[in-house]
Amino acid sequence: MTHKRPTFDAFKQTALQDPEVKTEYEALSTAFEMKRQMIALRKKAGVTQEQMADLLGTKKSNISRLESLHSNVSPRLATVEDYARVLGYAVKIEFEPRTH
Predict the structure, then answer these.
(1) pLDDT digit string (tens) for 11-60?
(2) What is the pTM of this model?
(3) Residue ranges covered by each domain of the chain
(4) Which of 35, 39, 53, 74 could bond to 60 as cystine, CB 3.0-4.6 Å?
(5) The domain 19-86 belongs to what CATH superfamily?
(6) CA 78 → CA 2, 86, 99, distances in Å?
């Protein structure tokens, strides 16, 4: 008899039924999306992590850590604003009502 392994989507749906898991997931998805956008902006500008570090007066390792999608460290707002500024962007923050 063969047992089918649950798909990731099925696992995710089950896990998100737990309010604590859902809250944590939503917090992480916001941080993930912000970092994803930051990386996309830098790449669109044709700027490497090393060049970004020079523009911000820091080390490449700090840029790597800032952009890491696996890091649970949240950058300071001022850092995100500086990152955006050197690429010719401003940071816009929006608040949305929760859906639960």
Answers:
(1) 778 877 888 877 777 766 888 889 999 999 999 999 999 999 999 999 99
(2) 0.72
(3) 19-86
(4) 53
(5) lambda repressor-like DNA-binding domains (1.10.260.40)
(6) 54, 12, 29
